[in-house]
Structures are given as structure tokens and as C-alpha cells.
Amino acid sequence: MITEKPLAGALGAEIEGIDLTQTLSANDYKQIRKLLIKNEVIFFRNQDISPAQQKALADSFGPLQIHPAYETVEGFPEITILESTAEKPTKIEAWHSDMTFRQHPPIASILRSKITPEKGGDTLWSSTTAAYDKLSGNMKCFLDGLSAVHDFRYGFKESLEEKGGAARLSEAIKENPPVEHPVIQTHPESGKKVIFVNSLFTTHIVGLNRLESRAILDFLFDHIRTPEFTCRFSWEPNCIALWDNRSTQHKPINDYFPQHRKLHRITIYGDKPY
Predict the structure, then answer these.
(1) Is 28 a catalytic residue?
(2) What is the pLDDT of residue 271?
(3) How much is the pLDDT for 160?
(4) What confidence category does residue 45 fall into, taking pLDDT thresholds of 50, 70 and 90?
(5) 159: pLDDT confidence band, cut at 50, 70 and 90?
(6) DSSP tag of 3
(7) Active-site residue 218, yes or no?
(8) How many CB atoms lie within 10 A of CB 175?
(9) Is the pLDDT of residue 220 over 80?
């Protein structure tokens, strides 16, 4: 029997009573999706799944996306490797939703831990549904109808500044020009409103001058990080996090250098935000 243990008031639950290393039924996948929409991010422990099993879980949600910049698991181009070592520490520090520089950002992401540090390396998630709900009525009215620009180059500016970075990412830049998304999105399954800007990829709000745009975005970025909208997950090997990329943001806590951390992520092709 599948059970859920809530992690925080706004979002997050640990799921027990299901073995993801076994063949899952259509009803199992239906229950997982229902739990995801309800909790926005769900976690599974002690799940030593193979890349094929991770892909099968992701396939149940729809077509998969391939990341334009990261290394991938051999034989599985849909599974990106997120790794931090003493020689090559992670660069991602910011709160973000995955790949919002795409016209169709992912519906969801599935992250599976392979190697985790002895201490540190937790991840935070925030509910942009809860963040929207706590905006004033006047702010909701002001934001409704606005669009913001999301840019691959902005999110990967540190990589582009590295020696050879521009050449390495030249094709990704061509394939991912800046896109516009609504600042306030309607979740296509829950029907709830969410804030859809993030500090990693969102550059400016269309129709506002530079100072106005910066002030509004900084306010929204800070608001989304409000502790009451968040949950925190402590990784162990063979854990899985599955989050709704339409209604959450996340942030890795990089407090484990020089320890080794390695995870496998897969993302599911999404709807065009509206």
C-alpha cells in the first residue's frame, strides 16, 4: 500500500510502500502522478533503480527532454549527470526551475542519487503555488498578463566565460534563443496559479524599464524563498526526488566541498506555459 509522509506545510512528502525497481502497473503510475500534483515534490528512499527503470518512470509522464549542455549516462541521452568533485565543483547556486529557457519547459524532473557526501548536500524546494497565494490582491492584478524573458545564456554565463566555453556551448545557444513566458502561469492539471520566474534564467519583464523590472523580479525571487513555502531533503544513496517543475523551484545547498556528489536527472517534456 502506497503511503505518504508530509515533510513540510507547503509542499513535499516521502512516499513509502512502492518498489520502483519492480515493474509498475498503470495504476501505480497513476497514483504517483496524483501524489506529485498534490505534494508538488515527492521523495523515495532505498530505490536502487537502473537507468532504464529511471527512464521508464519518466516515460510514464510523457516524452523526455535532452539537456543541451550536460554530460549524459552512456546509452541514455535523456539522463544527465550532475556531479560535483574537488577538482570540478558545481556552479549551480541559484534557486531555479529546470530549463525554463525552453519554449516548453519540463513538466517534471526526476533526480536519483548515486554518490552523496557524508554530510551536507541537501536540496531545498519551494512552492510557487504557495508563494502566489500569499501575494496581495493588488500585486496579483499587476502581475497578471505580464511576460518575462528566460535566456539559456544568462543561466550558463559562468560556463560561457570559461576557456572554450563559448565554442562548447555554441550549438546550445543557437538551439535555445531567449523565450517569453507568463510571469503568472496557470497549472494545467491543478488549475492553480503559480509564479513562473526564477533567478537563474529570467532576465527581465517585458514592457517595464530596467529598474522597474529588476525591482519586481528581486521582490518575487525573495518572496519565493520565504521559509514557510519550502521543504528540505537530506540525500542518501539510492534516493529519488520527483518534482513538478511547473509549480516549484529548487536550490542545491553547496556546503559539502570537497566531497563527491553525483546524481542522475531526467526531465519530461512540458506544456507551453499559459
Answers:
(1) no
(2) 83
(3) 61
(4) very high
(5) low
(6) E
(7) no
(8) 10
(9) yes
| Sign of the C-alpha dihedral computed for residues 171, 156, 202 and 37 taken in this order | positive
Instruction: Measure the CA–CA gap between 58 and 64, rounded to whole angstroms.
Output: 7
DSSP string, 139-169: HHHHHTT-EEEE-HHHHTHHHHHSTTHHHHT
C-alpha cell at 256: 559539502
> d(Cα 269, Cα 274) in Å, to the nearest integer?
15
- CA neighbor of 154 nearest in space, from 170, 167, 168, 173: 173
Spell out the residues 6+ positions from residue 11 whose beta carbon is closer than 8 angstroms to its own. Answer: 39, 40, 41, 125, 126, 127, 129, 130, 229, 230, 231, 248
Angle at alpha carbon of residue 260, lines to 256 and 263, rounded to 5°: 105
User: How distant, in Å, are the alpha carbons of 91, 148, 201, 238 from that of 178?
Assistant: 21, 10, 10, 36
DSSP character for 273?
P
Please confirm, yes or no, whether 104 is among the known catalytic residues: no
Cell matching residue 169: 556551448
The single-letter code of the amino acid at 264 is: H
CA–CA distance, 72 with 216 (Å, rounded to integer): 36
Residue 98 is a catalytic residue: yes
CB atoms within 10 A of CB 208: 15
Distance CA 120, CA 111 (A): 17
Question: What mean pLDDT value characterizes the chain?
Answer: 94
Q: Which of 153, 187, 250, 264 is the catalytic position?
A: 250
- Where do the domains of the chain lie, and which CATH numbers do they carry? 3-268 (3.60.130.10)
Please pick, among 67, 96, 153, 181, the residue that the annotation labels catalytic.
96
